[in-house]
Design goal:
Aminoglycoside 3'-phosphotransferase, Chain: A, domain 2; 6-stranded antiparallel β-sheet; Rossmann fold; 5-stranded parallel β-sheet; elongated
Length: about 525
């Protein structure tokens, strides 16, 4: 049932109409354009944009009074400056009258204010990442850089505390289940019932994990609405904007929920490659592989948010064509959720080969195509020792960070992380040399213990090419690996060649020339009976 206009909304519409033809801006304006959403107006003036909240009370948000609109303007400014300080300038008051408004400068006295606005630097609409994707301008490197930016933001975000375990689980459960009723009122599908049943089971199964995640500090003050349309390419990089200011419950969430929205959005737009490039780089930056146990729950949750929005919008359409498009949107996001729920059983992939043989390069191609989550020994070694990813220790071959003791600890960590990923249903790539037979035996034992197939991808290149790559990497100082030609020589002297049984199961790949990654993925799936 549609709501009656809240008190003050009529006066606001008069104000917006006046601003469109106003001379009351404190700066030069060539043209004024108005963008309207269901909760705000954005007044575009060329150099600056002014966001004005509608005087509405929708239940999940309440902007019905001037004082509340002022408070939420201040909140939006505080929160978004953490993500994109270069966009958010300040809060301004609007004086005068609804038919002759005058905008004050940011920070000026607001006595007699009739409204408040958030002042931002205006950016071209085609700089938003949803537009960038549609225009073919979004590249994998963009998502890798964004993953680093968001990981840094989450790292410093405020940790949220709750009174007890029941409250913390309830904060997760309630918004997830609230998505279903609006969709059920709009459409009756077996797929919807399947998603609902899966979600109920997952919430029960994940309860101890959700509690532990909160105790471990992974519930933080996040963005809350992290999808492509709320990301923008600025001169200094891609930044998030327009985070949720009106509901602490929707932004005080597990960091995995925050990034799951973006991953889901990319997958829903048929860009699994970008989604998994982003996801893997985020995990490399944070080390939060344990969070993948709840990632699926949040992926489906955000699919259902989009389905709910489309369902609600369909009930307020003027034409049958628009309503049908919204219903198609509901079906699309349900299908995205169901594909996640029905994804095939996981495969364990171990990379094998000398330093410089192309293991990491090739696994980067495989993880976006399978798709898979990758764990890199070079990165986990540095993390284990409390070092930055590209820190140089100048360790001698077989010593320092490459000592036998450290090596054993690293491989133990890799297998533990891989076990958790496999149990959570993800194809898992362990990017390490696996030059010793005992290491490969441990990999096979993990596969047997978790009931998944294991595939060894064995990379090789000519000796001159191996040495050239290692020399180039050593000079660049931009990779987590510190392997040198001296390390390569030690590996050659101490490695255990694959035996006959291992060779039968291995996929040999020469990287002297760029291999066909799609063909290798096909072989992995065939070996894994995917």
């Amino acid at each position: 049932m549609s709501r009656e206009p809240e008190p003050g909304l009529a006066q606001q519409r008069e104000l917006i109409a006046a601003l469109k033809n106003s001379r009351g801006f404190p700066h030069a304006v060539s043209d004024v354009e108005i963008v309207e959403t269901h909760i705000s107006w954005v007044v575009l003036t060329g150099q600056f944009a002014y966001k004005i909240k509608k005087a509405v009370n929708l239940g999940f948000l309440d902007f019905s009074t001037l004082e509340r609109r002022r408070y939420f303007c201040e909140e939006e400014l505080r929160l978004n400056r953490q993500w994109s300080p270069q966009l958010y300038i300040g809060m301004v008051s609007i004086g005068g009258s609804s038919d002759r408004p005058i905008l004050q400068g940011e920070g000026e006295a607001d006595e007699g204010a009739i409204e408040y606005a958030l002042k931002m630097r205006q950016f071209p609409q085609d700089a938003q990442l949803d537009r960038q994707l549609d225009d073919g301008l979004l590249r994998q490197q963009d998502l890798l850089d964004l993953a680093e930016t968001l990981a840094a933001g989450h790292r410093t975000a405020r940790i949220i505390e709750y009174e007890n375990d029941t409250e913390s689980v309830g904060k997760v459960r309630a918004p997830i289940l609230e998505n279903f009723l609006p969709v059920e009122r709009t459409i009756d599908m077996a797929l919807l019932r399947e998603v609902h049943r899966w979600t109920d089971r997952e919430l029960i199964a994940m309860k101890p994990v959700l509690i532990q995640r909160r105790k471990d500090g992974f519930v933080r003050e996040c963005h809350g609405d992290l999808h492509l349309a709320n990301l923008v390419r600025l001169p200094d990089g891609i930044r998030a904007f327009d985070c949720i200011e009106f509901s602490p419950d929707l932004r005080n969430i597990d960091v995995m929920s925050d990034i799951a929205f973006l991953v889901m959005d990319l997958v829903a737009r048929a860009r699994q490659d970008l989604a998994y490039a982003f996801l893997n780089r985020y995990l490399e930056q944070t080390g939060d592989y344990g969070g993948m146990s709840v990632f699926g729950l949040y992926f489906v949750y955000h699919s259902m948010i989009r389905a709910k929005v489309a369902a609600i919008r369909s009930t307020d359409r003027d034409t049958e064509e628009d309503r049908r498009k919204d219903i198609d949107g509901v079906k699309h996001y349900l299908a995205v959720a169901v594909r996640w729920i029905r994804q095939p059983s996981p495969i364990l992939i171990g990379m094998h080969g000398y330093s410089g043989s192309g293991k990491t390069w090739l696994s980067s191609q495989l993880l976006t195509r399978l798709p898979a989550v990758r764990i890199r020994s070079d990165i986990e070694r540095k993390r284990l020792l409390g070092l930055e990813e590209t820190a140089s220790t100048e360790s001698a071959p077989g010593a320092g960070i490459y000592s036998q003791d450290v090596k054993q600890r690293v491989y133990s960590r890799l297998l533990k992380l891989a076990g958790g990923l496999l149990e959570s249903g993800f194809h898992t790539i362990v990017d390490a040399a696996f030059l010793k037979k005992t290491e490969r035996a441990d990999l096979a034992e993990l596969a047997a213990r978790t009931g998944v197939p294991v595939v060894l991808v064995s990379t090789a290149a000519a000796d001159t090419e191996l040495r050239r790559r290692l020399d180039v990497r050593e000079q660049a100082h931009s990779d987590a690996s510190e392997a040198t030609v001296a390390v390569l020589n030690l590996q050659r002297r101490t490695c255990d060649p694959l035996d006959a049984a291992e060779q039968i199961k291995a996929i040999p790949v020469s990287t002297d020339r760029e291999p066909d990654a799609d063909e290798i993925v096909g072989r992995i799936r065939s070996e894994g009976v995917d």
